[in-house]
Amino acid sequence: MSVQVNFTTDPELKKAALMRAKKDGLTLKAILNTFLNAYSRGDVSLTFQINPEEYHSPAEERAYQEALKDLQNGNVISGEEFFAKVGL
User: Are 5 and 14 in contact (CB under 8 A)?
Assistant: First the structure.
């Protein structure tokens, strides 16, 4: 028995994968199933390296650094104090 797996991906990525599969004489289904089998057996491993600059704007990075500095300096309030300040 088989199950269907649905997920979304970038249309250009799908197109490129389909073109490569066709060139190699394979279907995208065969490639994905082969990968899932190999991954589940532990034959394939993935390593992710995240570049923070790609995920945070300069403003977000500044806010994070300020918050980290406040935390390191003990300049924090409890959740109860925060909710009281914002009227919740």
Answer: no
Measured between alpha carbons, how far is 79 from 85 in angstroms, rounded to an integer?
10
Q: What is the mean pLDDT of residues 27-52?
A: 90
Tokens of 51: 């570049």
Phi, psi of 30 (to 5 degrees): -65, -40
Cα–Cα distance between 8 and 33 in angstroms, integer?
16
The residue ranges of every structural domain in the chain are: 1-46, 52-85
Read off the pTM: 0.51
| Phi, psi angle pair for 2, to nearest 5° | -115, 155
Confidence of residue 55 (pLDDT cuts 50, 70, 90): confident
Residue type, 49: Q
CA–CA separation, 33 vs 27, rounded Å? 10
- From the list 67, 69, 60, 64, the residue with the least C-alpha distance to 82 is 67
